[in-house]
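Sharing a chain and its predicted structure for anyone who wants a worked example. Both blocks are below, sequence first, C-alpha cells second.
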Amino acid sequence: PTFIREHRLSRSSDRVKCARSSSSRIKTGKPNKAGGTIQPVILPSSMQASTLRRLSSSLRPLFHFHLNTRTPLSNPAAVFSFHKQPPHPTSSNLGRATSTYASPLSLVGEPYHKYQHVDAYAASELALDSVVKIFTVSSSPNYFLPWQNKPQREITGSGFIIGGHRILTNAHVVADHTFVLVRKHGSPTKYRAEVQAVGHECDLALLVVESEEFWEGMCHLELGDIPLLQEAVAVVGYPQGGDSISVTKGVVSRVEQTQYAHGAAQLMAIQIDAAINPGNSGGPAIMGNKVAGVAFQNLSGAENIGYIIPVPVIKHFINGVEERGRYTGFCSLGISCQPMENVQLREEFHMQPEMTGVLISKINPLSDAYQALQKDDIILSFDGVPIANDGTVPFRNRERITFDHLVSLKKPNDAAQLMVLRGGIKHELNVTLQPLQPLVPVQQFDKLPSYYIFAGLVFVPLTQPYLHEYGEDWYNSSPRRLCERALRDMPKKHGEQLVILSQA
C-alpha cells in the first residue's frame, strides 16, 4: 500500500512541542483522525493530467485532493487517494481538536514528500507562540551633513522564533537602530532585544532576547523547502491597520532571481499573491507546518504581488553567521555578461550550433576571475550545468533561473568549475569565489559616514546613500557623472574610494 504522511497541528503541550508536528503513516482504507477514510483508486497510465484535474475538480466539495506534479505521470499506474473533508472547527472543539491534513494524490514509488494543505486557521495556531511584533527606534545619517543624524523615527515589523533562542526578521526592520523591543502574542510586555547579526544584502537579521521570562511558552518554527508553483502559503505577521496578529493566504506565483529593494542584491525570491503590507516584514510564510520564506517586500503600483525570501537564502545567511560568527555576504563571480542569442554574434565568436552560453563583457579586477577569465570569453557551463544563451539554467520541473543563483549558493573560498569558449577552443577553468565590494557602496546601514573638512570644504566618499539624498527620483535628479560612476565603475585596488567635494 501507498503510505501518506499525516500532519497534526495543535497548541496542546501534550500533543505538539515547539511547533513540531508529529508524523505517522496511515495505511489505505483505515480511518484517520479527521473522521474520514482514505481510499485508493487505481488509474490507468493512459489517463492524462487534464483528465485527472477534471475528475478532482468535481470531487473538490467532498474530498481533499491535489494533483501532484512533482513526478510526471509516466508510471504504470497512479494511486488517487482521498479522504472526506473533516468537520470544520467550531467553538466547542477549537481547544481540543487537532487539524489533520493528508496529501491526497501520490504516485506509485514516489517518496513520502507530499503536498501540504494550508489552512489559515492552522497557520495562525502554529504561529501564535512563535511570531512576535518588533518595535524599532532608528536614526539614519544625513549624508549632505554627515556630522548630523536625521530625527528619530519609530517603525514596527514582525519576526519569528527559530532554533537556538533566536528571532529571525528583516534587516530593514532594524536598520540604523537605536534600540529594539519585541512583544509576543497575548502579552502587553515589551522586551529589549539585541541585534546578533544582520545581512543587509539579503535583508535578514537575527535578534536575541536576554530575558528568560520572554522565552516561557515560546516555540520555534522549522525551515522547509522551496514551494512549487500554485502551492498555498499563509503569511503571518503584524501589518498596518491593527495591532493584533494577522494571517493572509495566497499561492506561489513564480520563483526567480529578484532585486532586493533594501540591499539592491539580485537573489532568489518567491512571488506570492498574498497581501504583504508594511508591518508584515520579517513575518513567516508558512506552508504546511514549516516556514517557506520570510515576507520582505511588495511591488508598488501592482495588486497582489508580494515577495518572500526563500529558505536557501535564509540558510545561507544563518549558516554563515554560525560558522564565522558574523555575516560574510554572498559570493560573486565579478563579471558582467551579455546574452548570445544573436546569430551574427554567435558566428563572430565561433560558436557551434549546439553550444550555448553568455559572453563576458567586463571583469572585476579584484575577483579571482580576473586572473583566469578574459573579456570576450563565453561561459558555456557552471559546475557542469549548461548555461542557455539567455543566461538561465534548468531549475526544478520545466522552470529556469539565471545562473547567478548557482553562484549565490557558494560559500566564500569555494571553487567553481567553468567551461569557457575562447577563440573557438573550449577550456576548463577553476575560479575561487568571494564576496566582492563595489567601488561605490550600495548601502551603508548601521554606521556613520566618514567626512573630511579642510578650509571650509567638505569632502565625503561617494556612496549610493549620498545620491539617495536627492530624492526618490535620484537617478535623474542627482549629478549625471556621479550617477554613472556609482553604477558602472569597478574598483582597481582594495580600499579604493571616490571622494567628492560635497560643500564649499
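Comments welcome. The first strand starts at residue 4 and ends at 9.
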